[in-house]
Amino acid sequence: MVLSTSETIQLIYLIPSLLLMIFVAFLLLYKILTKSQAFKNEFYPMVCYRTFNDILYHFTILILLKLPAWKIALNFYINSTCLAPLCCIFGAVTCCVPFLHTFILASMRYMAIYYPIKYSRISSQSTSIIICGVIFTISYGIGLASLAFPSKYVYNEVTGITSPVYIVKSVAYFQFCYGIIFYGLTVIGSLILNIANFVGLRKNNKKNKNKKSEYTFAFYGLFTLFTTCLMEGYLVGRIGGNFLENETMMAISNYALTWIGDIGTLGDFYFFLFINSEIKLAIKEIFFKIINKQVTSLVIRSTEVKSLQETKNSRIKTIPNK
Description:
By secondary structure, this protein is mainly alpha-helical.
């Protein structure tokens, strides 16, 4: 195995990022299940679901795309009859979630800005869990449907990359329906909603100063839209390769996905981590617990020392002078 400089750099940032994503995902899940007051918000179940999805995406890309691309166990991948379908299933599932997540996020922001009373009535963790269930059903429905089209690992002599490809042309029509029409509509809808959200924020700002966080989350929505547009570009290349039966085009699209996916998943993860104070505080609390330096214990200890000092001073004052 000989890694290029770019692939080495990718591994250097991917491994610690993936470990942090796993940690944050389980931390969010724990906070939600224990009904932590700070995480009783309709956004956190969606963020938790998206994070677990992105973790699955990275393991899929690493095991089923990058390892054969690095020429590791090539015969194992080429001779396998189940690994290529698995890659197609999980690839379709994990790539579907960002489109739905971006559209739903923009829709929720739109309702919160223009219909705050109605939004406050329906916004809850239970509503968010139902939305996650809908995302799960749609994404796995698309993923499992891909089993109807046979696929296998093929070595491309032009690119020198071994990657999974569909071996029937008819899959292009299926991919066109969900990849171009359905995802395209979600991208267009997200774009319209994000523009409307910025217009609404500007109008509200004239009447009542918006919090800085309102604009921060609006920019977060724009960033997720940008990454889904990149993903749509990958799908156009992949679907075009299937339709034209061009293995080189499909191999290039698969290679581009390894970088586009990093921008979408890791970019989304770090952006949200940066703007969300509750998650950062929860991470700090865990960190302080690990090193036995809890913030609360430090405050209590300093309070006790101060109390003892005040008691000592009061006793000194009450001692009569001889």
